[in-house]
Amino acid sequence: MIQNITIGDLTIDCTNANRTREFYAKLTGWEKIIAFDCLALKAYNGMILLFAEPDDIPYVPPVWPEEPGKQQKQMHFNFQVDDLPSAVEEAIRLGASKSAVQFGDAHYVTMLDPEGHPFCLCRK
Fold first, then answer.
1. What are the VOC domain coordinates in residue numbering (predicted)?
2. In the chain, what are the domain boundaries?
3. What share of the chain is helix, strand, coil (3-state, %, to 5)?
């Protein structure tokens, strides 16, 4: 075990870093910054989300749920919310879509961000 290890930042690959950062900024209210020459967000706890556009190969969005031979998800956020139905409506208004396949019953809803990354809105 490495002593005193924490997550300093997380990089999200996408085709349009500005659009993806704007979506998550509006969804979370986190501060828009530039970090390591990348568009980024700073969470309330200090964690940094970096948004990166691949230089050498095109971004391929993941398939949800996973399918053999298809691009698998690269990350998955679980956002805790007070009012799940309202959070789902707001995420859709901001550009997300609700996944056609759901596994969370009344506890969480799987959404897809504008780049196709899955994330969940979860009841607190």
1. 6-124
2. 1-58, 60-124
3. 20, 30, 50
Residue 26 to residue 57: CA distance in whole angstroms: 28
Structure tokens at 39: 């568009």
Q: What tens digit of pLDDT does each residue of 18-67 get? A: 999 999 999 999 999 999 999 999 999 999 999 999 888 888 999 999 88
pTM (2 decimals)? 0.88
Q: Is 103 helix (H, G, I), strand (E, B) or coil?
A: coil
CATH topology of domain 1-58: 3.30.720
> Who's near 11: CB < 8 A, 6+ residues apart?
38, 49, 50, 51, 52
Which CATH number is 60-124's, of 3.40.50.2000, 3.40.50.2300, 3.10.180.10, 3.90.550.10? 3.10.180.10
| 3-state SS, residue 97 | strand
Phi/psi at 34 (nearest 5 deg)? -110, 130
* CB contact at 8 A, 96 and 23: yes
